[in-house]
Write a structure and sequence with these properties.
Strand content of chain B: 15-25%
Strand content of chain A: 15-25%
Number of strands of chain B: 3
Number of helices of chain B: 3
CATH topology of chain B: GMP Synthetase, Chain A, domain 3
CATH class of chain B: Alpha Beta
Largest interface: A-B, 26 and 26 residues
Structural class of chain A: alpha+beta
Shape of chain A: globular
Helix content of chain B: 25-40%
Oligomer: heterodimer
Number of domains of chain B: 1
CATH superfamily of the largest domain in chain A: K homology (KH) domain
Protein backbone atom coordinates (compact mmCIF):
# COMPACT_ATOMS: atom_id res chain seq x y z
CA UNK A 1 0.00 0.00 0.00
CA UNK A 2 1.34 3.40 -0.90
CA UNK A 3 2.22 6.11 1.57
CA UNK A 4 1.10 9.67 1.07
CA UNK A 5 3.17 12.40 2.58
CA UNK A 6 1.71 15.79 3.45
CA UNK A 7 2.87 19.00 5.04
CA UNK A 8 0.86 21.69 6.79
CA UNK A 9 1.15 24.24 9.53
CA UNK A 10 0.14 21.81 12.23
CA UNK A 11 0.40 18.07 12.64
CA UNK A 12 -3.38 17.87 12.83
CA UNK A 13 -3.84 19.70 9.54
CA UNK A 14 -1.24 17.55 7.84
CA UNK A 15 -3.04 14.45 9.10
CA UNK A 16 -6.37 15.70 7.92
CA UNK A 17 -5.06 16.41 4.44
CA UNK A 18 -3.44 12.99 4.29
CA UNK A 19 -6.69 11.28 5.31
CA UNK A 20 -8.69 13.28 2.82
CA UNK A 21 -6.30 12.20 0.14
CA UNK A 22 -6.49 8.56 1.14
CA UNK A 23 -10.25 8.79 1.42
CA UNK A 24 -10.36 6.81 4.64
CA UNK A 25 -11.17 7.47 8.25
CA UNK A 26 -8.39 7.94 10.73
CA UNK A 27 -9.19 4.56 12.25
CA UNK A 28 -8.33 2.85 8.98
CA UNK A 29 -5.07 4.62 8.41
CA UNK A 30 -1.57 4.25 9.67
CA UNK A 31 -0.10 7.68 10.36
CA UNK A 32 3.44 8.63 11.21
CA UNK A 33 4.52 12.08 12.23
CA UNK A 34 7.76 12.70 10.34
CA UNK A 35 8.40 16.22 11.51
CA UNK A 36 6.74 18.62 13.88
CA UNK A 37 6.71 22.37 13.40
CA UNK A 38 9.34 23.99 15.59
CA UNK A 39 8.28 26.52 18.14
CA UNK A 40 9.58 29.97 17.28
CA UNK A 41 9.56 33.12 19.33
CA UNK A 42 6.29 34.22 20.89
CA UNK A 43 4.64 30.90 20.12
CA UNK A 44 4.94 31.36 16.40
CA UNK A 45 5.71 28.21 14.54
CA UNK A 46 8.53 27.90 12.11
CA UNK A 47 8.80 25.11 9.63
CA UNK A 48 6.03 22.74 8.72
CA UNK A 49 4.51 19.63 10.16
CA UNK A 50 5.12 16.62 7.97
CA UNK A 51 3.25 13.36 8.28
CA UNK A 52 2.94 10.27 6.19
CA UNK A 53 -0.06 8.02 6.08
CA UNK A 54 -1.34 4.99 4.30
CA UNK A 55 -4.38 2.82 4.37
CA UNK A 56 -3.71 0.23 7.01
CA UNK A 57 -2.94 -2.98 5.18
CA UNK A 58 -5.37 -5.82 5.61
CA UNK A 59 -3.70 -8.50 7.64
CA UNK A 60 -4.85 -11.66 9.32
CA UNK A 61 -6.35 -10.74 12.64
CA UNK A 62 -4.90 -13.69 14.52
CA UNK A 63 -1.45 -12.18 14.69
CA UNK A 64 -2.57 -8.85 16.13
CA UNK A 65 -0.30 -6.90 13.78
CA UNK A 66 -2.08 -3.66 14.53
CA UNK A 67 -1.13 -3.73 18.12
CA UNK A 68 2.51 -4.39 17.45
CA UNK A 69 2.53 -1.57 14.98
CA UNK A 70 0.90 0.90 17.27
CA UNK A 71 3.48 0.14 19.89
CA UNK A 72 6.34 0.61 17.50
CA UNK A 73 4.90 3.90 16.37
CA UNK A 74 4.75 4.91 19.96
CA UNK A 75 8.50 5.45 19.93
CA UNK A 76 10.31 8.40 18.42
CA UNK A 77 7.52 9.65 16.24
CA UNK A 78 5.00 10.12 18.96
CA UNK A 79 3.81 13.64 19.49
CA UNK A 80 4.79 15.13 22.82
CA UNK A 81 1.24 16.19 23.46
CA UNK A 82 -0.04 12.64 23.40
CA UNK A 83 1.07 11.77 26.89
CA UNK A 84 -2.20 12.77 28.47
CA UNK A 85 -4.31 10.85 26.02
CA UNK A 86 -3.04 7.43 26.89
CA UNK A 87 -4.78 7.30 30.18
CA UNK A 88 -6.39 4.12 31.36
CA UNK A 89 -9.89 3.53 30.26
CA UNK A 90 -12.56 1.36 31.70
CA UNK A 91 -14.20 -1.07 29.36
CA UNK A 92 -17.54 0.68 29.00
CA UNK A 93 -15.98 4.07 28.43
CA UNK A 94 -17.34 5.64 25.28
CA UNK A 95 -14.68 8.15 24.43
CA UNK A 96 -14.48 8.67 20.70
CA UNK A 97 -12.25 6.48 18.63
CA UNK A 98 -8.54 6.96 19.08
CA UNK A 99 -7.17 4.65 16.41
CA UNK A 100 -3.41 4.06 16.25
CA UNK A 101 -2.60 6.02 19.40
CA UNK A 102 -5.05 3.99 21.41
CA UNK A 103 -3.67 1.48 23.84
CA UNK A 104 -4.44 -2.09 22.80
CA UNK A 105 -7.69 -3.57 24.04
CA UNK A 106 -6.99 -7.21 24.54
CA UNK A 107 -10.47 -8.23 25.49
CA UNK A 108 -12.61 -6.90 22.71
CA UNK A 109 -14.68 -9.26 20.65
CA UNK A 110 -14.71 -8.75 16.90
CA UNK A 111 -17.99 -7.22 15.75
CA UNK A 112 -20.05 -9.08 13.18
CA UNK A 113 -19.62 -7.17 9.87
CA UNK A 114 -23.25 -8.02 9.00
CA UNK A 115 -24.39 -6.00 12.02
CA UNK A 116 -22.25 -3.06 10.92
CA UNK A 117 -23.70 -3.26 7.41
CA UNK A 118 -27.24 -3.37 8.79
CA UNK A 119 -26.68 -0.22 10.87
CA UNK A 120 -25.14 1.56 7.88
CA UNK A 121 -28.11 0.59 5.72
CA UNK A 122 -30.64 1.79 8.27
CA UNK A 123 -28.83 5.09 8.68
CA UNK A 124 -28.60 5.78 4.94
CA UNK A 125 -32.23 4.89 4.28
CA UNK A 126 -33.36 7.27 7.02
CA UNK A 127 -31.03 9.97 5.76
CA UNK A 128 -32.34 9.74 2.21
CA UNK A 129 -35.86 9.91 3.62
CA UNK A 130 -35.00 13.02 5.63
CA UNK A 131 -33.59 14.60 2.44
CA UNK A 132 -37.01 13.87 0.90
CA UNK A 133 -35.37 11.74 -1.79
CA UNK A 134 -35.95 8.19 -0.59
CA UNK A 135 -33.69 5.59 -2.17
CA UNK A 136 -32.66 1.98 -2.12
CA UNK A 137 -29.63 0.61 -0.35
CA UNK A 138 -27.53 -2.33 -1.46
CA UNK A 139 -24.64 -3.76 0.50
CA UNK A 140 -21.76 -5.54 -1.15
CA UNK A 141 -19.77 -7.34 1.44
CA UNK A 142 -16.66 -9.43 1.08
CA UNK A 143 -15.56 -10.45 4.55
CA UNK A 144 -14.63 -7.17 6.23
CA UNK A 145 -14.77 -5.02 3.13
CA UNK A 146 -18.12 -3.46 2.46
CA UNK A 147 -19.48 -1.04 -0.01
CA UNK A 148 -22.88 0.37 0.84
CA UNK A 149 -24.64 1.97 -2.10
CA UNK A 150 -27.56 4.32 -2.04
CA UNK A 151 -29.43 4.64 -5.31
CA UNK A 152 -32.47 6.67 -6.26
CA UNK A 153 -33.71 9.83 -7.94
CA UNK A 154 -32.30 13.30 -7.32
CA UNK A 155 -29.55 12.25 -4.96
CA UNK A 156 -27.13 14.89 -6.28
CA UNK A 157 -27.52 16.98 -3.16
CA UNK A 158 -26.19 14.08 -1.11
CA UNK A 159 -23.13 13.80 -3.34
CA UNK A 160 -22.23 17.47 -3.37
CA UNK A 161 -19.48 19.32 -5.23
CA UNK A 162 -16.64 16.88 -5.99
CA UNK A 163 -18.28 14.35 -3.70
CA UNK A 164 -17.74 16.48 -0.58
CA UNK A 165 -21.16 15.78 0.92
CA UNK A 166 -20.76 12.10 0.09
CA UNK A 167 -17.51 12.02 2.07
CA UNK A 168 -19.17 13.70 5.06
CA UNK A 169 -22.02 11.17 4.86
CA UNK A 170 -19.48 8.36 4.72
CA UNK A 171 -17.79 9.76 7.79
CA UNK A 172 -21.10 9.88 9.68
CA UNK A 173 -22.09 6.41 8.53
CA UNK A 174 -18.86 5.11 10.01
CA UNK A 175 -19.58 6.87 13.29
CA UNK A 176 -23.08 5.41 13.39
CA UNK A 177 -22.21 1.87 12.40
CA UNK A 178 -18.59 0.98 13.07
CA UNK A 179 -17.82 3.21 16.01
CA UNK A 180 -21.15 2.83 17.72
CA UNK A 181 -20.80 -0.92 17.64
CA UNK A 182 -17.14 -0.78 18.64
CA UNK A 183 -16.00 -2.25 15.37
CA UNK A 184 -12.42 -1.56 14.32
CA UNK A 185 -11.90 -4.20 11.70
CA UNK A 186 -14.34 -3.69 8.88
CA UNK A 187 -13.74 -1.28 6.03
CA UNK A 188 -16.79 0.63 4.99
CA UNK A 189 -17.21 2.68 1.84
CA UNK A 190 -20.28 4.54 0.77
CA UNK A 191 -21.36 5.26 -2.76
CA UNK A 192 -24.32 7.44 -3.62
CA UNK A 193 -26.03 7.46 -7.00
CA UNK A 194 -23.05 5.62 -8.46
CA UNK A 195 -20.79 8.64 -8.06
CA UNK A 196 -17.65 6.73 -7.13
CA UNK A 197 -18.28 4.12 -9.76
CA UNK A 198 -18.72 6.72 -12.51
CA UNK A 199 -15.55 8.48 -11.41
CA UNK A 200 -13.64 5.21 -11.44
CA UNK A 201 -14.98 4.37 -14.87
CA UNK A 202 -14.14 7.78 -16.31
CA UNK A 203 -10.63 7.55 -14.93
CA UNK A 204 -9.97 4.11 -16.34
CA UNK A 205 -11.34 5.16 -19.76
CA UNK A 206 -8.96 8.10 -19.68
CA UNK A 207 -6.08 5.80 -18.68
CA UNK A 208 -6.84 3.45 -21.59
CA UNK A 209 -6.81 6.38 -24.00
CA UNK A 210 -3.44 7.57 -22.74
CA UNK A 211 -2.07 4.01 -22.95
CA UNK A 212 -3.11 3.77 -26.60
CA UNK A 213 -1.40 7.07 -27.39
CA UNK A 214 1.80 6.04 -25.61
CA UNK A 215 1.86 2.74 -27.46
CA UNK A 216 1.42 4.47 -30.78
CA UNK A 217 3.94 7.27 -30.22
CA UNK A 218 6.46 5.28 -28.17
CA UNK A 219 6.81 8.34 -25.94
CA UNK A 220 6.15 8.13 -22.20
CA UNK A 221 3.51 10.41 -20.74
CA UNK A 222 3.20 11.81 -17.27
CA UNK A 223 -0.34 12.33 -15.98
CA UNK A 224 -1.67 15.04 -13.70
CA UNK A 225 -0.95 14.63 -9.99
CA UNK A 226 -3.60 12.37 -8.42
CA UNK A 227 -4.57 10.93 -5.06
CA UNK A 228 -3.24 7.48 -4.24
CA UNK A 229 -6.73 6.01 -4.70
CA UNK A 230 -6.92 7.46 -8.21
CA UNK A 231 -3.38 6.38 -9.07
CA UNK A 232 -4.32 2.88 -8.04
CA UNK A 233 -7.22 2.91 -10.48
CA UNK A 234 -4.82 3.88 -13.27
CA UNK A 235 -2.21 1.26 -12.31
CA UNK A 236 -4.86 -1.46 -12.01
CA UNK A 237 -6.52 -0.56 -15.30
CA UNK A 238 -3.28 -0.56 -17.23
CA UNK A 239 -1.77 -3.63 -15.59
CA UNK A 240 -3.63 -5.72 -18.15
CA UNK A 241 -2.54 -3.69 -21.16
CA UNK A 242 0.37 -5.15 -23.16
CA UNK A 243 3.20 -2.97 -24.41
CA UNK A 244 3.16 -0.33 -21.68
CA UNK A 245 4.22 -0.02 -18.05
CA UNK A 246 3.13 2.39 -15.36
CA UNK A 247 4.92 3.80 -12.37
CA UNK A 248 4.42 6.64 -9.90
CA UNK A 249 6.89 9.49 -9.65
CA UNK A 250 7.40 12.47 -7.37
CA UNK A 251 6.19 13.25 -3.89
CA UNK A 252 2.68 14.03 -2.78
CA UNK A 253 0.82 16.20 -3.47
CA UNK A 254 2.56 16.14 -6.85
CA UNK A 255 2.95 12.40 -7.18
CA UNK A 256 1.78 11.29 -10.58
CA UNK A 257 1.53 8.24 -12.76
CA UNK A 258 3.89 7.90 -15.69
CA UNK A 259 2.70 5.71 -18.55
CA UNK A 260 5.68 4.43 -20.56
CA UNK A 261 6.29 2.00 -23.41
CA UNK A 262 7.31 -1.39 -22.04
CA UNK B 1 -40.52 11.53 14.57
CA UNK B 2 -40.06 14.24 17.12
CA UNK B 3 -42.74 16.90 17.24
CA UNK B 4 -40.16 19.59 16.40
CA UNK B 5 -40.35 18.48 12.76
CA UNK B 6 -43.86 17.17 12.37
CA UNK B 7 -45.39 20.47 11.27
CA UNK B 8 -43.48 21.72 8.27
CA UNK B 9 -45.21 25.07 8.13
CA UNK B 10 -44.02 26.18 11.53
CA UNK B 11 -40.40 25.19 10.97
CA UNK B 12 -38.14 27.49 8.97
CA UNK B 13 -35.88 24.73 7.59
CA UNK B 14 -37.84 21.45 7.59
CA UNK B 15 -35.48 19.37 5.45
CA UNK B 16 -32.33 20.53 7.24
CA UNK B 17 -34.02 19.94 10.59
CA UNK B 18 -35.16 16.44 9.66
CA UNK B 19 -31.69 15.55 8.40
CA UNK B 20 -30.03 16.97 11.50
CA UNK B 21 -32.43 15.14 13.77
CA UNK B 22 -31.92 11.83 11.99
CA UNK B 23 -28.13 12.10 12.13
CA UNK B 24 -27.90 13.15 15.77
CA UNK B 25 -30.44 10.58 16.95
CA UNK B 26 -28.49 7.87 15.12
CA UNK B 27 -25.25 8.85 16.85
CA UNK B 28 -26.27 9.37 20.48
CA UNK B 29 -27.01 6.83 23.19
CA UNK B 30 -30.13 8.68 24.29
CA UNK B 31 -32.13 9.64 21.17
CA UNK B 32 -35.18 10.66 23.20
CA UNK B 33 -33.19 13.49 24.79
CA UNK B 34 -32.37 15.09 21.42
CA UNK B 35 -33.99 18.53 20.99
CA UNK B 36 -33.63 20.94 18.12
CA UNK B 37 -34.50 24.61 18.50
CA UNK B 38 -34.53 27.30 15.84
CA UNK B 39 -33.62 30.92 15.95
CA UNK B 40 -32.94 33.61 13.38
CA UNK B 41 -29.50 35.11 13.28
CA UNK B 42 -28.92 37.88 10.73
CA UNK B 43 -30.94 36.22 8.03
CA UNK B 44 -29.52 32.80 8.78
CA UNK B 45 -31.43 30.09 10.56
CA UNK B 46 -29.63 28.83 13.60
CA UNK B 47 -30.32 25.26 14.61
CA UNK B 48 -29.50 24.50 18.22
CA UNK B 49 -29.04 20.86 19.02
CA UNK B 50 -29.37 19.69 22.61
CA UNK B 51 -28.35 16.21 23.61
CA UNK B 52 -28.15 14.32 26.90
CA UNK B 53 -25.20 15.09 29.12
CA UNK B 54 -22.93 12.24 28.15
CA UNK B 55 -23.67 12.36 24.43
CA UNK B 56 -22.09 15.64 23.40
CA UNK B 57 -18.60 14.20 22.96
CA UNK B 58 -19.88 11.58 20.57
CA UNK B 59 -21.75 14.14 18.49
CA UNK B 60 -18.75 16.44 18.27
CA UNK B 61 -16.19 13.70 17.76
CA UNK B 62 -12.46 13.85 17.94
CA UNK B 63 -11.29 17.36 17.24
CA UNK B 64 -14.73 18.28 16.08
CA UNK B 65 -14.62 16.00 13.10
CA UNK B 66 -18.08 14.54 13.50
CA UNK B 67 -19.58 17.99 14.11
CA UNK B 68 -17.89 19.17 10.93
CA UNK B 69 -19.40 16.32 8.91
CA UNK B 70 -22.83 16.96 10.42
CA UNK B 71 -22.61 20.64 9.43
CA UNK B 72 -21.59 19.73 5.87
CA UNK B 73 -24.51 17.36 5.39
CA UNK B 74 -27.12 19.58 7.07
CA UNK B 75 -26.01 22.62 5.05
CA UNK B 76 -26.46 20.58 1.89
CA UNK B 77 -29.95 19.65 3.06
CA UNK B 78 -30.72 23.31 3.80
CA UNK B 79 -30.36 24.18 0.12
CA UNK B 80 -33.59 22.22 -0.36
CA UNK B 81 -35.18 24.61 2.16
CA UNK B 82 -33.58 27.54 0.32
CA UNK B 83 -32.04 28.87 3.51
CA UNK B 84 -28.62 29.01 5.07
CA UNK B 85 -28.18 27.36 8.43
CA UNK B 86 -25.74 27.48 11.33
CA UNK B 87 -25.62 24.63 13.78
CA UNK B 88 -24.76 24.77 17.48
CA UNK B 89 -24.32 21.77 19.72
CA UNK B 90 -25.10 21.92 23.44
CA UNK B 91 -25.69 19.46 26.22
CA UNK B 92 -28.21 19.63 29.05
Amino acid sequence: MEWVETTAETVEDAKRIALDRLGVDESEAEIEVMEEPKQGLFGRTRGEARVRARVRPQTPRSKNPRRERSQRDGGNNRKKTNGGQNRQRSKGDKVDNERSERPPREDREPVDPAAVAAEAEKFLLGLAEAFETPGKVTVNREAEDMEVRLDGENLGLMVGPKGATLLAIQDLTRVVSQRRLGDHDSRLRIDIAGYRERRRDALSRFAMKVAAEVKESGIARSLEPMSSADRKVVHDTLAEVDGITTRSEGDDPNRRVVVAPA
Amino acid sequence: MNDTVSDHNSVPAPVATAVLEHIVKSIVDDPDAVRIDHSENRGKIRLEVRVADGDLGRVIGRRGRTAQSIRAVVRAAATRDEVEVDIDFEDD
